[in-house]
Amino acid sequence: MREGLIPTILGTGVTATGIAMKTRSMRRNKRMTTGLMPTIAAGVIGFGLAHVLLGSIDLFEGRD
Predict the structure, then answer these.
(1) Contact 55, 2 (CB under 8 A)
(2) What is the largest CA-CA distance in the chain?
(3) Residue 53 and residue 48: Cα distance in Å, rounded?
(4) What is the pTM of this model?
(5) Which residues of 16-39 are buried (b: 16+ CB within 10 A; e: fewer)?
(6) Would you say 56 and 10 are in contact if contact means Cβ atoms under 8 Å apart?
């Protein structure tokens, strides 16, 4: 298994979870700025995207 594949897959799942949390919160409140859930969802999305980015860097570095 290539190095960086696991963080990339994990990051994709975490990002999808964050987007689902944000979508659910938006449907419930009709606005993005009310409550704590949109803030947590934004943090989860950012954490997931960081994993995708760092995993992709590892994938491209080990191509030799």
Answers:
(1) no
(2) 50
(3) 9
(4) 0.83
(5) eebeebbeebeeeeeeeeeeebbe
(6) no
Query: What pLDDT digit, counting tens, does each position of 16-25 carry?
Result: 999 999 888 8
Encoding tokens for residue 59?
A: 């994938």
How is residue 44 written in tokens?
A: 């989860």
Task: Give the domain ranges of the chain.
Answer: 5-61
Give the CA dihedral 26, 29, 34, 37, nearest 10 degrees.
-60
Q: Which residue is it, tokens 């700025």?
A: 33
Distance, CA of 41 to CA of 49 (rounded, Å)? 12
| Cα gap 52→58, rounded to integer Å | 10
d(CA 31, CA 50) in angstroms, rounded, equals: 26
